[in-house]
Design brief:
The chain is mainly α. Helices cover 61% and strands 1% of the residues. The chain is built from 35 helices and 4 strands. The protein has helices spanning 23-29, 35-49, 57-70, 78-89, 106-119, 122-127, 133-146, 150-163, 167-183, 191-201, 205-218, 227-240, 256-263, 268-281, 285-296, 301-317, 323-331, 338-348, 359-368, 386-393, 400-407, 431-439, 448-462, 468-477, 485-499, 505-509, 517-528, 531-542, 547-560, 568-574, 580-594, 601-610, 615-625, 633-641, 657-682; strands at 14-15, 18-19, 374-375, 383-384. The strands form 2 sheets. It has a two-stranded antiparallel ribbon. It has a two-stranded antiparallel sheet with strand order 3-4. A hairpin with a 7-residue loop joins strand 3 (374-375) and strand 4 (383-384). Helix 11 (205-218) runs antiparallel to helix 12 (227-240), helix 11 packs parallel to helix 14 and helix 31 (580-594) packs parallel to helix 33 (615-625). The longest helix has 26 residues, at 657-682. It is globular.
């Protein structure tokens, strides 16, 4: 095996971590007799040679040797090698999105990888008949994606569907038929007909669900009229069929592959079936909510757990009336199954105010289990426990006693201060514990930024006048050469800005020539309201080449309103910047300074359409304009009726995407509602 592997100049090649000299060792590890060595080798292949889907020169050089492993009957874990090779082969290049900062030759590597896998695709035909079910399962997908001759591929799939006895392979074959129908939409080969036939003739409820999921994505017109009741009934029937407990004789290795395997759902096949169906239904939120409700009330814990994970994608991508499924997810917090509770908390903590229907369950869990208030990690600082964070993010004041208690611990979670913003006026009770915490921070500690930063953030939100002496003390006593001192100073200055305290004026004036000049100028304006003291500083920063400081300066000028008129020419120039955030900040400031919408509205319209992330800022500006912003209110009206969340995107998401989208909708509606009120008064 591996003839010629030592003749390859691996040292001249690279992978994600530099030299590819270790690749021969990884390849040989894939065929080791020891399971833990095979898993570590597979982890190395995914972690370095094919990291996050990348294709390096060393990845290309591995392809012939992976085919060699794949073709050796009897070797264990060959199915994983088939999956790895298929992943390296990727998808059609025209379906790929390459980032702007990608190396120029990277698409060529992808094209060469796909060509190399396609050149050996004849092997996949034989593997569909392999004795190892794992190999047959992986080969079903690979033969569709890489083999030439649609008629031959379809014939193989049809034959294997008729003969296959292993349930997991049968499911993979049905999914491969759906993939075939997608790749060959105009083919006369009856892939959709076969899927419809399988749904009608198969008796196994899981296989019927698999066929329904593929039909939903390829031929929704052929779905049953009563889709949701049908799916829920099939789920109930499937859950009544005894499933063998998940067994895995592979070792507990400390590898990413091993950790991911341990995190898989207890019913991985059921999870995949429902994920396929939910993805196919897309924006049909009414159907998906009804389906989730059916799943979440199932007597089978695996079905409910799968539903919780399915819900996350729905909530973060589509807008809808989610009170019922959120409340049902809250009910899972009382389950005996730890995996279920963890899944429910994980989903709820990213919903913020939308998690309110589950607040009672969260509050009960927080009250009953102080151990869930803080999560401690093997490496790194502790964080707030998921249940407490989720409860605080709903804005529920029942989180406040637990947060106050956490502030009294020896080590406070670094993210605690960031939940204060969601608690409103009720959070005032945390001011005392936060001040006490700030007094305990040693100013010369190397990690003073980590200890004090989140506390300062919370105190700025609370605007607690009693915090002023502690904030000034910190600014005076922190050593000048402390790492990240600038970030700490900026956090402290933001507290002074919120307090607008004249006592801070001397300190703030001393910061106007440093790295924190803009936040210091903003705080100085709040404290004394003297434009002559801050306009020279802000004008200087507007002309700097540092985007973040230019944007912050423009925002501060917007706060000053007409007092900043002397810098209108500079703001006007900035509205023509090549960078969208610079233009947006300058346009919003220009409106607040001049009150003239004409030069501003075209800039805001263009930015709204160019960059989704600017929409919240722009909507707030338009809300402040009143009827002056009416020429671009079509943007707001379109947004509030759009079914998809404005930040929704394929392949990833941010934990605050739902929060920001709900805020955007609220501001848009407020602006439009105010406009209607003004219209009615005018009439």
């Amino acid at each position: 095996m591996f003839i010629g592997i030592d003749e390859v100049d691996w040292a001249s090649m690279e992978h994600a971590y530099g030299s590819a000299e270790d690749v021969p060792m990884l390849l040989r590890g894939l065929v080791s007799r020891l399971p833990d060595e095979r898993e570590r080798a597979l982890d190395g292949m995914y972690g370095a040679v094919h990291r996050q889907g990348d294709v390096y020169d060393s990845t290309l050089a591995c392809i012939p040797f992976l085919f060699d492993v794949m073709g050796r009957a009897g070797l264990p874990d060959r199915g994983s090698v088939v999956e790895l090779l298929a992943s390296i082969g990727g998808t059609d290049l025209e379906d790929e999105d390459f980032p702007d900062d990608t190396d120029a030759d990277r698409p060529d590597n992808y094209a060469m990888a796909r060509a190399a896998v396609r050149a050996g695709a004849e092997t996949f035909f034989g593997l569909t008949e392999d004795a190892d079910p794992q190999v047959r399962r992986a080969a079903a997908h690979a033969v569709v994606r890489f083999a030439d001759g649609p008629a031959r591929v379809f014939a193989v799939l049809r034959r294997r569907v008729e003969r296959e006895a292993d349930g997991s392979v049968q499911t993979a074959l049905i999914e491969a038929l759906g993939c075939f129908a997608r790749l060959h939409p105009r083919s006369p080969l009856p892939a959709v007909d076969l899927l419809h036939e399988l749904y009608g003739t198969l008796t196994d409820p899981g296989l019927r669900l698999a066929a329904l999921g593929q039909l939903a994505g390829r031929a929704p017109e052929r779905l049953p009229k009563d889709l949701v009741p049908t799916v829920v009934a099939l789920l109930r029937e499937r859950s009544r069929v005894p499933r063998a407990p998940r067994t895995d004789d592979r070792p507990e290795t400390d590898t990413l592959v091993g950790r991911l395997r341990r995190l898989r759902p207890a019913d991985q096949e059921g999870s995949r079936l429902l994920r396929t169906l939910h993805a196919a239904l897309g924006g049909r939120t009414v159907d998906r909510i009804a389906l989730l409700s059916g799943q979440l009330t199932s007597p089978d814990v695996a079905d409910r757990c799968n539903a919780v994970w399915m819900s996350a994608g729905l909530f973060r991508e589509w807008r809808g009336a989610y009170e019922e499924p959120v409340a049902l997810i809250g009910d899972q917090l009382a389950a005996d199954d730890a995996r279920m509770r963890e899944a429910a908390v994980s989903v709820l903590e990213d919903l913020f105010e939308l998690a309110a229907p589950a607040a009672d369950r969260l509050a009960a869990l927080v009250a009953a289990d102080p151990e869930c208030w803080v999560r401690r990690w093997e490496h790194g600082a502790p964080t707030l426990g998921g249940p407490l964070r989720a409860l605080a993010r709903t804005g529920d004041p029942r989180a406040i006693p637990a947060l106050a208690a956490v502030l009294g611990l020896e080590t406070v979670p670094h993210d605690l201060g960031y939940v204060v913003a969601h608690l409103g006026p009720e959070a005032a009770g945390l001011a005392g514990p936060l001040r006490a915490r700030l007094r305990c921070v040693p100013p010369d500690s190397p990690d003073v930024c980590g200890h004090a930063g989140t506390t300062l953030h919370a105190l700025a939100l609370l605007r607690d006048p009693a915090a002023l002496p502690d904030v000034l003390r910190l600014l005076h006593e922190v050593p000048g050469d402390l790492p990240r001192r600038e970030a700490l100073t900026e956090s402290a200055v933001r507290v002074l800005d919120a307090l607008a305290a004249p006592e801070a004026i001397p300190v703030l004036r001393g910061l106007l020539d440093g790295e924190c000049a803009v936040p210091a100028a903003a705080a100085l304006w709040s404290a004394e309201g003297d434009p002559e003291a801050v306009l020279p500083v802000l004008g200087r920063e507007l002309g700097s080449g540092r985007p973040h400081r230019r944007r912050a300066a423009a925002e501060t000028l917007g706060r000053m309103g007409a007092q900043a008129r002397s810098l209108v020419p500079e703001l006007s120039v900035m509205t023509r910047s090549d960078e969208v955030w610079q233009r947006t900040a300058a346009a919003c400031a220009l409106w607040r300074v001049t009150g003239d919408p004409d030069p501003v509205l075209p800039v805001l319209r263009a930015a709204w359409e160019e960059n989704l992330y600017t929409r919240g800022t722009i909507a707030e500006c338009l809300a402040g304009m009143g009827r002056a912003g009416e020429p671009v209110h079509d943007l707001l009206r379109t947004e509030v009726v759009a079914p998809r969340r404005h930040r929704a995107r394929t392949g990833g998401y941010g934990s605050h995407d739902v929060l920001e989208d709900e805020r955007l909708l609220r501001v848009c509606r407020e602006a439009l509602s105010a406009d209607q009120v003004l219209r009615s008064k005018h009439c």
